[in-house]
Design brief:
The complex is a heterodimer. Chain A has helices spanning 6-29, 59-83, 94-117. By secondary structure, chain A is mostly helical. Chain B has 2 domains: 6-348, no CATH class; 354-402, no CATH class. Chain B is 66% helix and 3% strand. Chain B is built from 14 helices and 2 strands, in the order αααββααααααααααα. Chain B has helices at residues 6-42, 58-68, 79-95, 123-131, 134-144, 148-179, 184-193, 202-215, 227-230, 240-265, 284-309, 317-346, 355-377, 385-401; strands at residues 103-108, 111-115. Chain B is globular and about 80 Å long. At the A-B interface, helix 1, helix 2 and helix 3 of A face helix 1, helix 2, helix 3, helix 4 and helix 6 of B.
């Protein structure tokens, strides 16, 4: 089983080396003639003002937090989806597995409706 | 014939890796040309046609130019992260293709070789795990450049990639329920034994396609680099090879997404309506034929990317998030439940899933798809102006008669 990861490791080495080579070689070959104007942040030709380390909307954090909840849910569903046919829960066979996932999804949907109603998914 | 083992396995894997990496690079290089010529064709102009016959060597010229062009390393940027970001985007983009099977097994004097870089038992999970690492490239590029446009592009990119990954994962769960395995080889084999999953799982295919467009930052979802709003988004301050690496990553992600669509929904390397290509005595000819079949399907989806790019206008950011969280997520979740119930109802114990069940589900999908598209449309196109015009015309005709 584990030997199937060997080609993956080899590919990883190849990709990392080629990424580093691309950055390194182009750095060697390219000329660098910085001027005062070239070293300014690009703001569509207007002299830059202020800092780019601005505060940004809290919504982006919220999306990241929600993502963790729902992505873990997807990850939980995957093993269930794969073993779905062999499940035998509560002596009900496959139906038991279905009911168990239904319970999980119901809990999740309650959370989803709450998030929606609280306005966490609104962007305007 | 046995599978290759031992040291022959390692050597043949090395050959395979170099071949696949080279092939990917070649396809990506020429796809930039196809994209530009395709764009030109749609916009009724010529596109790059000077370098070589029909502009065939344009990618070579572009590559050389990117190598020797002046690099700007902005003094106001966070140097280490600024250099690291393009690599962080590049590395996962080229790793994900490794689990996609692209032809039938090849017989060699040392045994059978799988036409897939790494036959991982976790298959699809690997793609989900590695492709989400690409987010770091965007966020770091956006933040380290110390440019307002880049920061906004990076933030948008992270929110978008993260949101559509859920829809992508959930629509793939429908396939996994159906196939009963997570290895892409088994998923392809199940489709060869019954029907292509695009028929019984049409809605999942559509959701996956939309999510794939969003995950690869392509129009109509190219918000992170929307040129009319953010100059170039997260790579505004990048130039020369580092800029090219972001593009290589984007195109590599496109190839992987197309290959994945083919594997999950269009039978992988299966040649339709025949079974000689997926049965036991493997020959070199079978490998070549299935190789061509796989790439023909994949190139079709790559063409679709170009086609959609110049057809559909860009979303607004709030529309994008609404589509991801309020439409795709609940639809995909409901669809997984529907598919699980349908599989349970249709599969009599001891009876394998076959063509009959596939066609029954395909019919159910037509009905579901009709309602889905009607709701998504909100009386704008399907029941919108055209329909309203017809009603008005009928009313005025009735007035004229009376």
């Amino acid at each position: 089983m584990l030997e199937s990861y060997v080609p993956l490791l080899m590919l990883m080495v190849l990709v990392i080396v080629s990424a580093a080579a691309m950055v390194g070689l182009s750095h060697l070959f390219s000329a660098s003639r910085p001027t005062a104007v070239k070293s300014q942040p690009y703001e569509s030709g207007i002299p830059p003002f202020g800092t780019a380390r601005e505060r940004f909307e809290v919504k982006f954090y919220l999306v990241a937090v929600l993502f963790i909840v729902f992505d873990i849910e997807v990850v939980f569903m995957m093993p269930w989806a794969v073993t779905f046919r062999q499940l035998d829960i509560l002596g009900l066979g496959v139906l038991g597995g279905l009911l168990e996932m239904a319970a999980f999804v119901v809990v999740l949907v309650v959370g989803y409706v709450y998030v929606w109603k609280r306005g966490a998914l609104e962007w305007t | 014939m046995k599978w290759v083992t031992g040291s022959a396995f390692v050597y043949l894997s090395a050959v395979k890796i170099l071949a696949v990496f080279g092939l990917l690079m070649l396809i990506i290089a020429f796809w930039t040309l196809v994209e530009r010529r395709g764009a030109a064709f749609i916009q009724n102009r010529l596109g790059p046609n000077r370098v070589g016959p029909g502009g065939l060597f344009q990618p070579v010229a572009d590559g050389l130019k990117n190598f020797f062009k002046e690099e700007t390393l902005p003094p106001f940027a966070d140097r280490a992260l600024f250099v690291l970001a393009p690599m962080m985007a590049f590395i996962p983009a080229f790793l994900t293709f490794s689990v996609v099977p692209f032809a039938s097994p090849l017989p060699t004097p040392w045994g059978l070789v799988r036409m897939q870089v790494a036959d991982l038992p976790i298959g699809f999970l690997f793609i989900l795990a590695i492709s989400s690492l690409g987010v770091y490239g965007f966020v770091l590029a956006g933040w380290s450049a110390n440019n307002k446009y880049a920061l906004l592009g990076g933030l948008r990119g992270s929110a978008q990639l993260v949101s559509y990954e859920i829809a992508m994962g959930l629509s793939a769960v429908a396939v996994l329920v159906f196939a009963g395995d997570i290895s892409l080889n088994v998923i392809v084999a199940r489709q060869q034994a019954s029907v292509w999953f695009v028929l019984p799982l049409f809605l999942a295919f559509f959701l996956f396609l939309v999510a794939a467009f969003a995950e690869t930052n392509r129009l109509p979802f190219d918000l992170p680099e929307a040129e009319s709003e953010l100059v170039a988004g997260y790579h505004t301050e990048y130039s020369a090879m580092k800029f090219a690496m972001f593009y290589l990553a984007e195109y590599s992600n496109m190839v992987t997404a197309s290959g994945l669509l083919v594997c999950l929904f269009f039978g992988g390397w299966d040649i339709p309506f025949t079974s000689w290509d997926n049965t036991a005595p493997w020959t070199v000819w079978k490998t070549l034929a299935t190789f061509v079949a796989f790439w023909a399907k994949t190139l079709f989806f790559l063409l679709l990317y170009v086609w959609v790019r110049w057809t559909v206008p860009r979303f607004r950011f709030d529309q994008l998030m609404d589509l991801g969280w309020k439409v795709l997520l609940p639809t995909a979740l409901g669809y997984v439940i529907f598919i699980a119930l349908a599989t349970w109802a249709l599969e009599v114990p001891g009876h394998e899933f076959g063509v009959r069940e596939g066609l029954i589900l395909a019919a159910a999908n037509v009905v579901l798809g009709y309602f889905f598209f009607r709701v998504l449309d909100r009386n704008r196109v399907l029941g919108g102006p055209a329909n309203r015009g017809r009603k008005l015309w009928r009313a005025s005709a009735a007035r004229r008669r009376s």
